[in-house]
Amino acid sequence: MSQINTRMLALNALEDITTNKVFSNKALNTILKKHQDLSKQDRAFLTRLVEGTLEHLIQLDYIINQFSKTKTNKMKKQILNILRISVYQLKYMDSIPDSAVCNEAVKLAKKKGFIKLSGFVNGVLRNIARSLEDIEMPNETSHPIRYLSVMYSFPEWIIQLWLEQYNYETIKTMCQESNKTPKTTIRCNKTLITPDALKEMLKDKNIIVEEGQLLDYAFNISKYNYLQDIDAFNKGYFQIQDESSMLVAEVASPKETDKILDVCAAPGGKTTHLSEITRQKALIIARDISQEKTNLIQENIKRLNLENIRVEVWDALIRDEASIEQYDVVIADLPCSGLGIISKKPDIKYNVTHDQIQSLVNIQRNILTVIQEYVKPGGTLIYSTCTINKEENDNNLYWFEDNFPYKREDITPLVSDKIKPYCQEGYLQILPQYFNTDGFFISKLRKDC
């Protein structure tokens, strides 16, 4: 397929994400599945163009606004997105000639029905191409929040929120790490294959395999085409899961005799991990709010060939009388702002609002109020999120301890020496820069006997 068509696909994906608010991973996956005839090179180009443009959206708009009399907030959305993907190519894809970027953008404008605006597109882009090296970013010393916002494309309110929780240099590094392109992290299913055997099996298929940073059964893989084309995946030899997320099961440290409940389990990464580390002997109940979500759990259970998990549709906000004090371990990996996984889902930073975060805090506390009853006296509650926002993490933990008969439990004996320095009393906050993983929060609480 020609590059012009690939650019059109990228433009369509970006329009779905920015206008229709489709999640970036879903928009991209839908297009890739629909166009499976794309070469590996075209798939890589399309993916980079969509993800890269999203990662740098605020910076791209900042650049466009310096060369266009019509500001980005006044432009037609399709013209703006044509300019965005084009400026991304000019600034971040050196292998593409400037003339090709400009010419293809003009063609896109015409194909989208904006023949009269094709000259505008051409003029703006050629001016940017000539002056790209001379563009001045906001001054870091006098305008640090504006600087971070434009340099790393984070809304200013998120920078301001983080400045209330972390120091400036930590936030700057966090922004840098969140804009890096992540590799695919996998967890070896040790009930079916050893990590070494899996590694060799993948390398035999010319897949690049790198050791994980934290766990000996975790790998980072790259240079593959479709995940579903990997034989080891179809045979259930591995599960896609970030290493930071794998630590939930490690910290829970369940026994083979335990009865375990995962209250917001989809797509099933933690549930299936718990099954594997208890050698399929623990009784595990995996719940989520809809049939669509529980179907995802069922698919992974079936593919991984696991047999000790029961899946149920259940809203975690609804009290289940039959579950009161029935579980040795309850996993509460709850809906959150997702500010720790921006490298994987860059659209999160543009779509989440502070009001939404406040609503999420209330939802998290309401769920915790309900599900804490399900833990047996002396049992374990794991509260985790994939965010780095202290309002949803530390503050919720302190609130929970103040209101319920639980005490934090030391988790340092359960993690490797590499992780121990980042453990607090009963919880762990991982930032993206620590181990090249997602940002993640994990706390362990023991219910009073």
Automatic annotation (TrEMBL):
GO annotations of cellular component type: cytoplasm
Q: Which reaction does it catalyse?
A: cytidine(967) in 16S rRNA + S-adenosyl-L-methionine = 5-methylcytidine(967) in 16S rRNA + S-adenosyl-L-homocysteine + H(+)
Binding residues for S-adenosyl-L-methionine: C264, A265, A266, P267, G268, G269, K270, D288, D315, D333
Q: Origin, by domain of life?
A: Bacteria
Q: Which UniProt keywords apply?
A: Cytoplasm, Methyltransferase, RNA-binding, rRNA processing, S-adenosyl-L-methionine, Transferase
GO terms in the biological process aspect are: regulation of DNA-templated transcription
**Enzyme Commission number(s):** 2.1.1.176
Query: GO molecular-function annotation terms?
Result: RNA binding; rRNA methyltransferase activity
- Enumerate the transmembrane spans: none
The record's listing under InterPro entries reads:
MeTrfase_RsmB-F_NOP2_cat (IPR049560), MeTrfase_RsmB-F_NOP2_dom (IPR001678), NusB-like_sf (IPR035926), NusB_RsmB_TIM44 (IPR006027), RCMT (IPR023267), rRNA_ssu_MeTfrase_B (IPR004573), RsmB-like_ferredoxin (IPR054728), SAM-dependent_MTases_sf (IPR029063)
Xref: Gene3D superfamilies: NusB-like, Sun protein, domain 3, Vaccinia Virus protein VP39
Per UniProt, subcellular location reads as: Cytoplasm
**SAM-dependent MTase RsmB/NOP-type domain location:** 174-448
| Top EC class for this record | transferase
One Pfam match: RsmF-B_ferredox
Function summary = Specifically methylates the cytosine at position 967 (m5C967) of 16S rRNA.
What family, per the record? Belongs to the class I-like SAM-binding methyltransferase superfamily. RsmB/NOP family.
- What name appears for this protein in its UniProt entry? 16S rRNA (cytosine(967)-C(5))-methyltransferase
Q: Which organism is it from?
A: Natranaerovirga hydrolytica
